[in-house]
Each structure stands twice: as structure tokens, then as C-alpha cells.
Model the fold of this input.
Amino acid sequence: MDAFESLVRKYQRTVYVLCHHITGAHQTADDLSQDTFIKAYLALPHFIDGHAFFPWIRRIALNNCFNYLKKRKRERPLAEEEKVARYNFLSSPNESPPDHVQREEMERKFKEAFRALPPDQKVIFSLRAFENLSYQEIAQALHIPTGTVMSRLNRARKRLKVQMAEYLGRS
Done:
């Protein structure tokens, strides 16, 4: 029990962040990450000794998120969570007010487009863009061929590009 508790402490933030990237909602990510560790604890007898723990727990988390997205299609974050869940991929300390407004609008549009992705594409895009996993690592985590990862990621990128065309043209 103590060993599992230390694993929870070690990985709970990482699992939460993964769930949050995929669902876009704090409370949902919190619930899914907690459920992930409960399922992992109950499945401990099936864990293969000598294998890495994180890929196993990540797979459980991904399955939870994927099942949630299939059931709910998508969930809009609360306004308060919008402020907390910033990607800040263009933020700069010397940003002018008009640039700041434009960046915030682009981030809002990106989040909206990301939430609209189909669950299979959203999961793969999240693993690639936010978790920095390779195609092979994603394929192993999801138990799908590398080619499937590549095609779903390509479809996700194309959908995001279409949704973001207005902002990408301004660059």
C-alpha cells in the first residue's frame, strides 16, 4: 500500500495534466485522474513485474479520457477554468495591448477548435503536442499501428488548420 501511495504521489500531477489536456476541464480531469489511480490499484495483480509503471498508468488514464469523450462528446470548461487553462504558446513579456488581445483571441479559438476534434484525434494530438511523445510511443500507448497514429494526427492538424486559418494567415 505504501509503495502504491508513493507512485500516486509521483505520477498524480502528470496524470492530471494529461487528463486536463484531453478534456479541457479541471473537475473532469481531477475526477478522471482519481479514477485512473483507483482502476490501477484494482488492476495491480495484472501489472507485469519489471515493466515501467508510467506507460501502464498512462494507458489507463487515456482509456478513461477516451471513454469519457465518447460518452460526453465534449465538455465546455467553466469560465473560471478558461482563465487558468492558458496555453500561452505566444506569450511575451513585452507584448503590446493589441498583441495581447489578439493572442488571447487566438488561444480561445485554438481551445475551441481543439475541443471540437473527434476523441481519437484529440487524444493523439494531445500526446504528440502536449506530452511530446513520438509516433511510436503513441502507437504503443494506444495499441494501434504507427500509420494510424500518423493519419489521425494529420487529420487533427488539418482540422485545426482549417479552424485557425483566419489567424494563421495573419502571421
User: Anything to note?
Assistant: The domain at 1-74 is CATH 1.10.1740.10 (Rna Polymerase Sigma Factor; Chain: A). DSSP finds nine helices and no strands in the chain.
